[in-house]
Amino acid sequence: MSGQEKGVPSDAELADMSQDELVRLGVQLDDVELVKYKDRWPVKGTRAEKRAERQVAAWFILAAVSGLAFIVLYVVWPWQYESPFSEGHFLYSLYTPLIGITLGLSILAVGIGVISYAKKFVPEEMAVQQRHDGGSSEVDKRTTAALLADSGQRSGLARRSLIKRTGLAGAGVFGVGLGVFALGGLVRNPWAHSDSPDSLWHTGWRSYDGEKVYLRRDTGDPHEISLVRPEDLKAGGFETVFPFRESERGDDHALFKALRKSDNPVMLIRLRPGSEPTKRKGQETFNYGDYYAYSKICTHLGCPTSLFEQQTGRLLCPCHQSQFDVVHSYAKPIFGPATRSLPQLPIMVDEDGFLVTNQDTSNQGDFIEPVGPGFWERKS
Ligand code: FES
Questions:
Q1: How many whole angstroms separate alpha carbon 330 and alpha carbon 328?
Q2: Strands 344-345 and 332-335, how do they pair?
Q3: Which atom of ligand 1 lies closest to the CA of 373?
Q4: Whole-angstrom Cα distance, residue 103 to residue 111?
Q5: Which letter, b or e, does each residue of 368-379 get, where b requires 16 or more Cβ atoms within 10 Å of its Cβ?
Q6: pLDDT digit string (tens) for 135-158?
Q7: Which residues line ligand 1 (CB under 6 A)?
Q8: CA angle 365-368-371, nearest 5°?
Q9: 214-357 maps to which CATH number?
Q10: CA dihedral sign of residues 53, 54, 59, 60
Q11: Where are the transmembrane segments (predicted)?
Q12: Torsions phi, psi of 297, nearest 5?
């Protein structure tokens, strides 16, 4: 054995050694002192061992059941917004807590199952080892692998089919649940119902069947309808408005939803006389005189752009300080992280003197571009 350390076997000798011999050799070569190393269950098949096995299995079964419940809830539970006035609100309000609880329970149960398996079946070991410099030798690698395999064998995993099966079921269902979670959002088709009020492609400002859509204030009470007339705003003033249709009067659900739908808020601005704003190509008729209406949802990350500085004609987003120039460049961002102009809502005044959307434009009175931060697969 020229060039070989004393006590270190050759490759051929290593290949001939049993797992038990490799474990002992590894311990000896590593200067490890095994203070304690014993099987948890020296006598196999006792009632206590079987009970421990069932306890571990119970955690994995719980992981599988809660993982399965998560998948079912995620797929079938009503998840689309329902206002507090609608019948479906109670079920909708349970959606997030239920998927959170079931997924959390599944993760927890897999974790506890693995820990309790290690505590109940992996050999009890206490070792003291001196640390050496440098990388591991081939002998170290082989003996360490043998030690790990030995722990697995002694813990009896191969013959504990209940734990193996439940562990696989628990971890498997949990893994599938994670996959469903990650991919589920891509499966739901945002193009579906593209002509319904719930479509992602329209806001609450779109008119169906040509019904007039008014600009209303949020008075704090959805039933108290306060429509906006041009004379309500002073020059340089602004107001947040929401859509309203006569057909929704008395419909609690629709009224509440119009005030809560995230892409509905619009900033109505009355520019000071003589501002002479630059208009966007193709949107020259979107304003009504000095009145301009822009989506209030910041095109950076969706905060409400709640401040209008009348001296400079800029809309400001308080979240990351984006500034949109309403006067000189049709709400184009001129400062901050936003990169896209705020979409403009086409407005006009009806025969009764109320501000309404202008349905002569190409999108039934709705914005003609996406509102808020861009999301995947944008249409335009
Ligand atoms: S959300 Fe408006 S600047 Fe970031």
A1: 6
A2: unpaired
A3: 1
A4: 13
A5: ebbbbeeeeeee
A6: 877 888 888 888 888 877 877 777
A7: 298, 300-303, 317, 319-320, 322, 336-338
A8: 105
A9: 2.102.10.10
A10: positive
A11: 56-77, 97-118, 167-187
A12: -85, 115
